[in-house]
Model the fold of this input.
Amino acid sequence: MSAGLYLHIPFCARKCDYCDFYSFAPTDAQMDAYCGALQRSVVDWSGDVTEPFDTVYFGGGTPSLFGGDRIAAVLNTIRSALPLTSDAEITVECNPSTVDEALAASLSAAGVNRVSLGLQSAVKSERAALGRASTPQQAENALRQLQQSGITNLSLDLMLGLPGQTEQTLDESLRFIQESGVPHVSAYLLKVEENTPLFAKKDTLPFPDEDRVCDFYLHAAEALEKMGLRQYEISNFALPGCESRHNLHYWRDEPYLGLGPAAHSFFGGKRFFYPRDFSSFLRGDAPVDDGEGGDESEFCMLRLRLSEGLSDDAFFDRFGKHLPQTVFDAAARLAPHGLLTVQDGTIALTKQGFLLSNRVIGTLTDSL
Done:
């Protein structure tokens, strides 16, 4: 079975108000040191790898801030030290404000064939509420420069439930997406995390209520599917063949190796993670054990996030036994409420079910 390789780039020019990911503003010296640490980590892991990687994902943070030359250097080390399939999907997350013609050209030359851009919203007031530094025009320019460099497998992030968001402003962002022609969109509900600037001022901002946010989700899902972007996961939509192969490793409970501070892994049947500590990773400290992974409950929970759902066949292939009847019985009780469908041995959540996914999936996994 092929695996995914994730590399966390913990650098941002400044943190957005909603962000709880591990990142900080770096110096050039820190980025150079980190590039070397990532390369050493790749080599250190090479002896433990038996199956090929078919995806590489630079996430963050702002990987584009790391620069095309450093990304190319890490990719060269990966190609030298690890088995990588010839058709590997290689993704880099980019902030629109960091993308220029030179970066786009260097990423393309390094073999990057997919880019995820942090749009969040095409409405200036909504972007300002999130603390986003770039403008919709910069996002438009970034898309054009990436396309001109030959990178056409592009994804945009869209956030729902932003302060001041209305159906009209959401439609403005959806029009931007349609006009961009991107083949992939990730549409997330905003979660206000503790210990962020947005959390500190949440009581002073005009957040839409829960019912309106649910309406936004259903409206966005319908609009994206009209554009030909098929929903294949709770928050993800793509043209056929343009689904994120890397993220599908997560949702199909397949192996992935994560390198860098705050990066998590499910590899060799184990879960482990690197602490949120830059200095620790530079020293080469070992990751922290996080127990066994891939049990029946976890497998079902992740598969139910996908529009394809949880099938008895997939469960049998993984565990050598059929999905317990108790799970189908629980699903049969939920189906009349429009939360899921049960057909040909497959349980799949509906859009209404996705809105209540934690509760629905919990009910099903509790019945195992």
